[in-house]
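User: For my dataset I need records formatted as: sequence, then structure tokens, nothing else. Please produce one.
Assistant:
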Amino acid sequence: ALPICKIKQYPDALRDLILPSVAAAIIRYGTNGEVKQLGNLPDTPVYALARGLILMREKKGDAARVIFDQMASSSSGGVASVGHVMQIRLRQVLGHAYPDEIVQDYISLQKDEDEAGIAPASSRQILYLGLSSALMQLRQYRSAMMMLSFLLPGPEIPQDILEQAYRELIRKMIFEKLDLIKHTTKLTSAQKNQISDTVALSGQNLPFLTDGPEKAEILMGYGQLLMALDNVSRAQHIFSQAMVLFPAPEQRSQAKELMARAALLQGMTDEAGQLLESMPAQFLSPALAARKTYDLALLAKKKGKADQALALLAHDETDEGLDLRGQLYE
């Protein structure tokens, strides 16, 4: 929004060529301060989208609807296309229609425009983003991801907004399945197939995410899905990637604990022991400290030190702890 004051000083013809798209992008994705810098926009047709977006941002649905309806009735195919998309987008943003209705509306609009040979890139990008969001709400993740694959960074959808859409979708897919695992005693074949599909689809799209703490959290969930599928070696590698992306010692310790668990499952006792030793007690939450204690007991068991393992499990009343204790007594 910084050059807005300069753009407004351009000759009217040049200003009206540049400012409408810049203003629309700022209203869609900018901060309140950036939107405020726009000031009052000229009351001319080329600024209709920007004015409608401001009203939509302010939750003034009726007023925004009037503008988008006028755009949809325009004799210009491009303007009408944007208007039709924004009519649907408005209902979606304000929650005035169910996700399945929104999906059907977007698909019908896309079909109508394709048949008429009218599909401006600007409105089609917004259509795909909105359709992906609605499909995600319906848990139709593969279709939602396909819509995102049609998108390219640009004025309508900046790179950071596109990445945010990928991150939200991948996170929802992964953690939904992780929640299933945590609340299921024994996975069925069908559930394992679902998890396998999620691993494949999310894994293909992880490269779209920028390295950082948010990606690290997603990698942790992704690695745990791999563990559930007994792909322990791959999971250990994913946890190691997550560890280096975490900034805080406790977060890194969480990754190390999962790396140690994966190492133990592969019989790599020396590596597991080193990882557990590198988890300082002062950075461990009670839950993480308990998991570390369980891992140390499992390590002792694998080394044939049953008494040491039992001592470590003395206060562990979790299902895992009780199960391991039962194995040791056997």
